[in-house]
Amino acid sequence: SAKSAGKDQFLFFDPVMQSDLISMHQTENELRIALENNQLEPFYQAQVDAQGGLIGAEVLIRWNHPERGLLAPAAFIGVAESSGLIVPMGYQVFAMACTQLVAWSGCEFARKLTLAVNISARQFEEADFTARIASILSSSGANPELLKLEITESTLARDIESVSLKMLELRKLGITFSLDDFGTGYSSLTYLKRLPIKQLKIDRCFVRDVLVDHDDKAIIVTIIALAATLGIDVIAEGVEEQEQQALLVSVGCESFQGFLFGKPESQEVFEQRFTAP
Ligand code: C2E
Ligand code: MG
Ligand code: MG
Ligand code: MG
Fold it and tell me: Where is the EAL domain (predicted)?
């Protein structure tokens, strides 16, 4: 009706919403420039084994914004997704990860370090995803066995036949897969068996209260048992306390990531921390 249309219109011109639209539009334009001007910088967060030994790192993007300083993904991933810029951004991050792997290949601390790169569902479903990844791999000379793609259950929820085909093609190249934020989406257990998944990444939300919440502990124990049955590795994310890690070790978790072992760090800081005597 005219009345509700009027109401919608009023809502549309709400000054708060309008300024949200302007700032979204502005963020999108600035992000486009950021991609061209190398303002995106990969940070690295350590992944360790039960003894605390470095086994890998997750690549987490930061934006060196010329006016606003260093921005975390929460400030721009949403706009990147809705504008589609997440696709070129994703390739840029993957290429930077490959370049870093090659640069670290001579360093003792990083010899067998795997780098985990986040891939959005939007990027994964691009028709030429496999070809683009293959081309970046070959032009960089990075060892695909050291690259892990972090996908989420939302990626699997798309056309499963084509997702499955793509994952198998990438696996043939040597790439491995980790299922990020595991337990928060709707995974069919059938997919876990069918798809070439190397690792389940237990979401931070189960780890946070694991010491006091019996349900969270039960969920973690169940995920670890399921993974063991299927021959899949497990890593826990968001480990902040020694006691959390001790409990996770006691129920069979073998890899860990979280502030207890280091925050996401610039390449320089990460390198320094692990090469220092
Ligand atoms: P994610 O992939 O689940 O990454 C883990 C997030 O948890 C990171 O936030 C990390 O800093 C944070 N974290 C790690 N350990 C702890 C901990 O012990 N405690 C707490 N409270 N937080 C912890 P960050 O870097 O802000 O990234 C947020 C999300 O943005 C990521 O979640 C991922 O979904 C997305 N993202 C980051 N970089 C990229 C990228 O290059 N490409 C894509 N597509 N997404 C990315
Ligand atoms: Mg991740
Ligand atoms: Mg995660
Ligand atoms: Mg998460």
Answer: 24-277
